[in-house]
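Notes for week 9. Today we move from apo structures to complexes. The key idea is that a small molecule is not decoration. When we ask for a structure prediction with zinc ion present, the ligand SMILES becomes part of the input, just like the chain. The input block below holds both the sequence and the ligand string. Read it once before you look at the output, and try to guess where the molecule might sit.
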Amino acid sequence: MDLVSAPSGESSSLKNPVLEVASADVSKAGTATENIAAAKGEVSQSEYETDSDGSGDEWETQSLYEDAIQVLRDEQLREGVPDACTLDEAVAYRKRLHEIGKAAFVEETLGQDTVTAKKLCTAFGILPPAFLDDAPDEAFHPLLAIAISREFSRRPKLPQYNTIDDAVRLLKECKNIVVLTGAGISTSLGIPDFRSKDTGLYSQLAHLGLSDPQEVFDIQVFREDPSIFFSIAKDILPTEKKFSPTHAFIRLLQDKGKLLTNYTQNIDNIEANAGVLPENIVQCHGSFATATCVKCQRKVMGDEIFDEIKKGVIPQCTSCPTIFAEDSGVKRKRNSNGVHRSRKDNDGDSSDDDYEIPTAGVMKPDITFFGEDLPDEFGHRLLHHDRDRVDLVIVIGTSLKVAPVAEVPGVLPRTVPQLYISRTPVSHTEFDIDLLGDCDVVVSELCRRAGWELKHEMIPADEKVEVLPVEGYESRHVFKVVGA
Ligand SMILES: [Zn+2]
């Protein structure tokens, strides 16, 4: 039985280009569909390719599973589902899987005939499809492989961290904090979340004739017509040297020697305004801080092209023409035994490249477009610098829907506590403590309770914040300003 041979895929997936998580609706249908989608790649290799007997119906089978997978929620298990595990049984199986790993778990269950694959699927929230009702138990193995892979990649919440006091204590005690940030930490400065489809920026793009506003950040579109990007670039260009209280909070962690790495999905480079040191930041989607010539790869500081961007002009490389001139000079010299010949003197042999009129390359800001690889530093730092050091993860102002940044919490050790600070909770990843509200308000209140001084002109000196529990969730809290 080959249920567990698939590679974990962790590190390789970190090299993927920026992709939206394919799940249709993360907030509603929940976690199952997207995780199954993620797991399926692995399963299709182990189950359908290596295990193939050449019958040729693998594709059909796979697509049937895809359509037939039904999510079984814990509430349903609690109420009781015919032929399914009880909720207690399910919890015990999940715990056991995480304890002993995939191979040993399969050996201990199916290998010892202690439970059927059909029933075991239900322990991991998958209801076997009706068309398999009379099938032999082996028919449920591919489904179980999906279920196990999905469960195994899910990080279980640590039960010992729940309250605000727990969060404050973690802040004070931890020394190597990974902070993962998104657009939510810059919105209080009026900077639009340009990747989100709800913003005004995207609605301005209709006149550019794009079928999907995200095409502005599509590398193919940029190569074909850079003017589309530069027509809106001035609107997202960071100009003022301002930063939000949340940026100040990250700087405060740095000052206290607690900031291991700030992975930011933002391209506004505002962390630098707050004084966060470059060596403590990974700009996961690049930034405007530098720009690179698409032709000769020359890199310049971003502000060298800011004036042109602000004017809506396409910035051109100033080195390209020089390089082309030098190149052709060398060739002419070599081709004519040291005798200089100008273009006009040439005998007209058009096969030689150096008679094309050289054009300068476009200077592209080093933000990561859709379809481009993430900066190498991202996966390398995560796996070789942070993974063995991190003692606390704080995710702020991002719904973590964009891969591979979304995978960071899952790649770090499961025993490391994870805090979530944002306006709305996410359901596709489970954090230990959810601190909901305006992230500037949440961090300022956390600092207040920690006895830390977080100075920022946007935080009123006498700000009072009320923290309310969310009914039904032990570890979810809402922060509200109750008067200043
Ligand atoms: Zn160039």
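The mean pLDDT is 78.
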